[in-house]
């Protein structure tokens, strides 16, 4: 049985949040912080792939720290003054400054936010699956199961290699089979009343392509109706 190995995820940016993340060769992600000690994360899904979305934060600038400190000092001084000589005007001024400070802090937090997301299978490949060459930029699932993110099921491929690999996917094969079935059955989509309408539109000179789109059939089918190859027994006066 393959032993699970964990590696720390290294981001290409600095952040101040007291949290770190690890990823394993089995396709798992966990976090370490004051609230979580190796908690496994579930993430979410996008187009069938596991994805993690994180929000981290850059440090406050020295100028912003100074501005906040000055504002807090002003509020503290007003509170002292209010304690000595209470007044409605002072109370309103204090509340206004506190409200403005709160809004400023929230706005700054948003400005310092770093929104990071990563696909689990790509992250696993980056840490546990070696590339044969730099042209291999796509990470493929060998068993075509997007949920199986184990390193043993992943391989770096060139776009061309991946395109060839996908032709063997049972999902692609099933879709191709369904398309062929839809084409074979396309001649059964119309009934006599619809054919009557089609022939009337053809008589008025409406283009085949437009009629085909309206009735959701192929242009070839419209052509065959027009030439009498199909539905020749329906006559429009």
Describe the structure.
This protein has 237 residues and is an alpha+beta fold. It has 8 helices and 9 strands. The strands form 3 sheets. It has a 4-stranded antiparallel β-sheet with strand order 1-2-3-4, covered by helices on one side. Strands 5-6-7 form a 3-stranded antiparallel β-sheet. Strand 3 and strand 4 (37-40) form a beta hairpin.
Q: How many beta strands in the DSSP annotation?
A: 9
**What average pLDDT do the residues reach?**
90
Shape: flat
Supply the helix-strand structural class: alpha+beta
Order of helices and strands: EEEEEEHHEHEEHHHHH
Portion of residues in beta strands equals: 15-25%
Q: Provide the helix percentage.
A: 40-55%
Rg over alpha carbons: 33 Å
* Number of helices, counting only DSSP H or I runs of 4 residues or more: 8
Ends apart, CA distance between termini: 77 Å
Give me the secondary-structure topology.
Elements: E1 6-8, E2 19-24, E3 29-33, E4 37-40, E5 44-46, E6 49-57, H1 62-84, H2 88-111, E7 113-119, H3 120-128, E8 138-141, E9 154-157, H4 159-166, H5 170-185, H6 192-203, H7 208-215, H8 219-227
Antiparallel strand pairs: 1-2, 2-3, 3-4, 5-6, 6-7, 8-9
Helix pairs in contact: 1-2, 7-8
Q: Key features?
A:
237 residues, 4 domains, 3-stranded antiparallel sheet, 4-stranded antiparallel sheet, alpha+beta
């Amino acid at each position: 049985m393959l032993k699970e190995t964990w590696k720390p995820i290294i981001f290409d940016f600095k952040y101040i949040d007291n949290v770190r993340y690890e990823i394993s060769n089995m396709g798992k992600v966990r976090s370490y912080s004051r609230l979580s000690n190796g908690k496994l994360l579930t993430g979410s899904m996008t187009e069938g792939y596991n994805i993690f979305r994180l929000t981290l934060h850059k440090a406050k600038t020295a100028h912003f720290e100074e501005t906040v400190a000055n504002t807090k000092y002003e509020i503290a001084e007003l509170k002292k003054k209010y304690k000595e000589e209470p007044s409605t005007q002072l109370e309103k001024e204090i509340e206004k400054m506190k409200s403005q400070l709160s809004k400023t802090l929230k706005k700054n937090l948003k400005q310092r936010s770093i929104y990071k997301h990563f696909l689990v299978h790509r992250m696993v490949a980056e840490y546990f699956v070696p590339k044969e060459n730099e042209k291999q930029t796509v990470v493929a699932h060998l068993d075509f199961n997007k949920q199986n993110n184990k390193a043993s099921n992943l391989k770096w491929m060139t776009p061309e290699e991946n395109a060839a690999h996908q032709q063997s996917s049972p999902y692609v094969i099933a879709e191709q089979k369904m398309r062929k079935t839809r084409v074979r059955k396309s001649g059964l989509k119309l009934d006599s009343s619809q054919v009557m309408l089609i022939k009337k539109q053809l008589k008025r000179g409406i283009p085949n392509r437009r009629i085909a789109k309206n009735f959701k059939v192929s242009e070839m089918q419209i052509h065959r109706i027009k030439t009498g190859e199909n539905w020749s027994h329906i006559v429009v006066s």
